[in-house]
Amino acid sequence: MTNIKQPQSSQPWNLPPIGNTDSQSVAAFVRSTFSSPSSLDQQQDLAVEEGFQKGYEEGLLAAQNEVSQQQTDLTQTLELLRNPLKQIDAQIEHELVELSLAVAKQILRREIKTEPQHIVGLIRTAVEQLPPGDPEINIHLHPEDAGAVEKTLKKYDANHQWNIIKDPATHRTDCKIHAEPSFIDASAEAIINRLAVDILGGERSDDRPPTEQTN
Questions:
Q1: Is 74 exposed, middle or buried (0-12, 13-18, 19+ CB in 10 A)?
Q2: Do 173 and 149 contact (CB within 8 A), yes or no?
Q3: Could you tell me which of 195, 188, 194 has the C-alpha nearest to residue 212?
Q4: Torsional class of 202: left (φ above 0), alpha (ψ -120 to 50), beta (otherwise)
Q5: Are residues 120 and 173 in contact, defined by beta-carbon separation less than 8 angstroms?
Q6: Rounded to an integer, what distance in angstroms lies between the CA atom of residue 139 and that of residue 130?
Q7: At what angle do helices 118-127 and 143-156 cross, to 10 degrees?
Q8: Which residue, among 134, 118, 150, 137, has the nearest Cα to 176 in the 3D structure?
């Protein structure tokens, strides 16, 4: 005997109820997912504008930093150039002074050689530097200068005891004064050298004639 099962009764399936809140969420999802072409364009334009603004600000900052660095480099370069120029100016000034002194020395020598009487002024200035009470003053001159100087000294200054010594070892226009224990070099060379020391400062090795010595 065969047992045949009877089919169970079936119930129809109904869609679950959807409330207002669920409906609004679905609608919002659909709108955000399937936006209209005009809305997509607006979003794209906004993104492009934001990206452009950000890129502009970053580029502007980078450019400002670059300009600032270039200004710093330029300032340092100008400062490096300025220092050598200062040194060159000082060197040129020194050379011009040297040249002027050399020219003055030649002019003085020529004037004294032409008019040996000018040596008298050098002698009188030098004698004023001697300590008081020197008993005897010996003046060494070149033989060609000695005659004119001796005449001029006797004529204009008879208060000192002058001894004019014709010294062939003494160059023309030179004058060396001995008044024991003092010695003064009153030559044109010595005068110019002392002037060079005053102008240039310090002493050069070839510009140190003895102005006054005491034993």
A1: exposed
A2: no
A3: 194
A4: left
A5: no
A6: 13
A7: 70
A8: 137
Helix (H, G, I), strand (E, B) or coil at 139: strand
**CA pair distance 206, 186, nearest whole angstrom:** 16
CB 171 within 8 A of CB 142: yes
The Cα 2–Cα 98 span in angstroms is: 146
Tens of pLDDT, residue by residue over 29-56, are: 555 554 555 566 666 667 666 666 666 6
Distance CA 177, CA 163 (A): 10
55-100 confidence digits (pLDDT tens)? 667 766 776 777 777 777 777 776 666 666 566 667 777 677 677 7
The shares of helix, strand and coil residues in the chain, as percent rounded to the nearest 5, are 60, 10, 30
**How far does CA 168 lie from the centroid of its chain?**
51
pTM of the full structure: 0.44
Cα torsion 135, 170, 107, 94: sign: negative
